[in-house]
Design goal:
Elements lengths: L1 H21 L7 H13 L4 H26 L1 H10 L7 H11 L3 H4 L7 H10 L4 H25 L1 H14 L1 H28 L7 H9 L5 E4 L3 H6 L2 E2 L4 E2 L5 H5 L8 E4 L6 H12 L5 E3 L3 H7 L5 E2 L4 H8 L3
Parallel strand pairs: 1-3, 1-4, 4-5
Antiparallel strand pairs: 2-6
Helix pairs in contact: 1-2, 1-3, 2-8, 2-9, 3-7, 3-8, 4-7, 5-7, 5-16, 9-10
């Protein structure tokens, strides 16, 4: 009876760990699944229930984020990136992967830190069909859970020895595990702080940009959003030129040094625009600023936009099943 209760507790812990990680909490579930794989080999857990609870937990989170992305689009992705401990692996890189790999991104997402939570709302925002989404997401989940359980089975002797050591430490073991998780979160937080420090570039407000345009100063306005982001929202500031971030280094070298240059995006903290502005500043440009609040702030201020129609192949590649 006690053994059955412990098994149920173990399954619930696996379910909750997988669920909250896939919902965006930085509490890695892969080590838990590896440990579960070792326990399966020892007969302490059953394979089918363990696999099932992990699969169901991951699927619940994926469907929740997919629906959120479908109904709220880029707003959800900006929120995720704003609270992410790893902003450099957030929305922008996810959008770029969708641009290159299409829906196959969902298959590999769970193996890339910071990508799994963002990939599903991006898929929703791109209006990926329910059938392809469930197929690709489920395939990725099966591979991820299966790889973790298989790793645990292969290393069951080492994991058993580790468990034995932890048991011998008693209450200290819990403190050690908590310290490891705290160190992981701390390292990610420091990474975020360094990233945010790099974004400290003077901004230009939308009213000031409008004033420059009205005065005939002809500022060079550059849209640095990803192809996927432009597919989701094709509106641009009138007269803006489009910059492919993968070619930014070569493109920006040709920009004039005697005009105001304004970059904009729709990222939290204007991250993409600030990054490109920093590149130009490091090349000696002085009249370069990201737009504070990006395209969203421009639209909220009531200023006009025009539509950019992306090439059909750009949208097709972003939503392809494979």
């Amino acid at each position: 009876m006690l053994n059955t209760s412990l098994i149920h507790i173990g399954l619930w812990l696996i379910f909750l760990n997988v669920l909250i990680e896939q919902l965006g909490v930085p509490l890695p579930a892969f080590p838990t699944l590896v440990a579960a794989g070792a326990l399966i080999t020892q007969g302490s857990l059953a394979l089918v229930p363990t696999f099932a609870v992990a699969f169901v937990a991951s699927t619940i989170a994926d469907i929740a984020w997919f629906i959120a992305g479908r109904f709220y689009g880029s707003a959800v992705m900006r929120l995720l990136c704003r609270v992410s401990l790893a902003p450099d692996t957030c929305v922008r890189q996810t959008e770029d992967r969708f641009g290159r790999l299409g829906g196959f991104t969902l298959v590999i997402a769970k193996f890339v830190p910071g990508l799994a939570t963002v990939a599903t709302p991006v898929a929703g925002a791109l209006r990926l069909g329910w059938g392809p989404f469930l197929l690709l997401s489920s395939t990725g989940t099966v591979l991820w859970v299966g790889a973790a359980l298989a790793a645990g089975a292969l290393m069951h002797d080492q994991i058993d020895a580790l468990f034995g050591q932890l048991r011998s430490w008693g209450p200290i073991a819990a403190l050690v595990i908590a310290a490891l998780f705290a160190a992981y979160a701390g390292a990610k937080w420091m990474q975020r702080r360094r990233f945010m420090k790099r974004l400290r570039v003077a901004r230009i407000a939308v009213d000031e940009l409008r004033h420059l345009i009205d005065e005939g100063r002809e500022p060079l306005i550059v849209d640095v959003r990803s192809k996927v982001a432009k597919s989701v929202d094709p509106r641009i500031i009138p007269g803006a030129i489009l910059l492919d971030m993968t070619e930014a280094q070569a493109e920006v070298a040709s920009y004039p040094g005697d005009r105001d240059i304004v970059f904009y995006c729709t990222c939290p903290n204007d991250a993409g625009a600030a990054h490109v502005a920093r590149v130009l500043i490091e090349h000696g440009y002085t009249r370069v600023r990201p737009l504070l609040g990006g395209l969203d702030a421009w639209i909220e201020a009531g200023y006009a936009t025009e539509l950019h129609t992306p090439p059909i192949e750009a949208y097709a590649s972003a939503t392809a099943v494979a």
